[in-house]
Specification:
The protein is built from six helices and twelve strands. It is an alpha+beta fold and 257 residues long. Strands 10-1-2-11-12 form a five-stranded antiparallel sheet, covered by helices on one side. The protein has a five-stranded antiparallel sheet with strand order 5-6-7-8-9, with helices on one face. The chain has a two-stranded antiparallel sheet with strand order 3-4. A hairpin with a 2-residue loop joins strand 3 and strand 4. Helix 1 crosses helix 2 and helix 3 packs across helix 4. The radius of gyration is 26 Å and the shape is elongated.
Length: 257
C-alpha cells in the first residue's frame, strides 16, 4: 500500500510518479518536447529503399461468355513524377493471349518479350496455338525463378479451345493462380469491394466491358499513381478488338462528377 499526504498537490504528484513508473514510454514522451517534423515523404514513398522508385498501376481482366476483357490505365510514374501519360500496359503474347503489366516497366517488357518468343517457338514446333495456361506457366516460371531481381505483377488472359476465356493472376513472387477475375497494381486496393459487389459469373461482353471501365475509372480517381486513359482489349475466338476511353470520357472521375 502507498499512503498519500493530505495535501492535494502532493497527492497528484505521487499519482503522476506512479503512472510514470508503470508506463516508461509515457515518461519518455513527457520528457521529449521536440515538435513533430514531417519528413517530406508520402506514405507510398516513406518505406522505399535507397534508389528505389514508387510505381503505380491499375490492371484488370474479366472473363465473359465468349472470351476475356483486359483493361488497364495508362500512367507510368517514377516516384511522384509521371514519366508517361499514355503508356500501353496490355501486351499481346500470341494471337488470342494477352498480358496486363504492373510493377517495373523494364522488367515486365523483358518478360513479355521472352514469353512471346517461347510461345511463337512452341506454336511452330507443335503446329497449333498455345493455351492461356501454357503462357501463364511460362510467365510464372520466369517470375518465380528470378523473383529476387524482378518487380513484376502480371495478369495473363485470353481465349483457347480448351478453357475458352480464362484469366491467370501472377503477383509479385511468381505465384500463378487461375481466377474468376483478376485485378492488380496500386489502384486495385481501392476497388476490391466494388468488383466483389458487381462481378457475376457468365456475364455477357457488354456487362463485362462496363464493369472493367467502371472499376478502373474509380481506381484512377482515388490512386495518385493511376491515371491517364483506359485501354481495353476484348479477346474472343474470332480475334480481338482494342479500344481506349479518353480522360474526359471516363464513366467516373472529375470529368464525370
Amino acid at each position: 500500500l502507498q499512503y498519500y499526504s493530505t495535501s492535494s498537490t502532493t497527492q497528484l504528484e505521487n499519482m503522476y510518479r506512479q503512472q510514470m513508473m508503470m508506463n516508461p514510454y509515457a515518461a519518455q514522451a513527457h520528457q521529449s518536447h521536440t515538435p513533430y517534423q514531417h519528413d517530406g515523404k508520402s506514405a507510398e514513398t516513406r518505406n522505399l529503399k535507397p534508389g528505389e522508385l514508387s510505381t503505380g498501376t491499375t490492371i484488370m481482366a474479366v472473363p465473359f461468355q465468349g472470351g476475356v476483357i483486359m483493361g488497364a490505365d495508362s500512367r507510368v510514374s517514377t516516384g511522384t513524377y509521371i514519366a508517361n501519360r499514355v503508356s500501353d500496359k496490355i501486351a499481346q503474347l500470341h494471337d488470342s493471349i494477352w498480358c496486363c503489366r504492373s510493377g517495373s516497366a523494364a522488367d515486365t517488357q523483358a518478360l513479355t518479350d521472352y514469353v512471346r518468343h517461347y510461345l511463337s517457338q512452341l506454336a511452330i514446333e507443335t503446329g497449333k496455338a498455345p493455351t492461356v495456361k501454357t503462357a501463364a506457366h511460362l510467365m510464372r516460371r520466369l517470375c518465380y525463378e528470378n523473383k529476387d531481381n524482378l518487380m513484376a505483377g502480371v495478369i495473363i488472359g485470353g481465349w483457347d479451345p480448351v478453357e475458352k476465356g480464362s484469366v491467370y493472376n501472377i503477383p509479385l513472387g511468381g505465384t500463378c493462380i487461375k481466377m474468376p477475375f483478376a485485378i492488380g497494381g496500386s489502384g486495385s486496393t481501392y476497388i476490391y469491394g466494388l468488383v466483389d459487389s458487381d462481378f457475376k459469373e457468365d456475364m455477357n461482353e457488354e456487362e463485362a466491358l462496363k464493369l472493367v471501365k467502371k472499376s478502373i475509372s474509380h481506381a484512377m480517381a482515388r490512386d495518385g499513381s493511376s491515371g491517364g486513359i483506359i485501354r481495353t482489349v476484348v479477346v474472343k475466338e474470332d480475334g480481338f478488338k482494342r479500344e481506349y476511353i479518353a480522360g474526359d470520357e471516363l464513366p467516373y472521375g472529375p470529368c464525370g462528377w
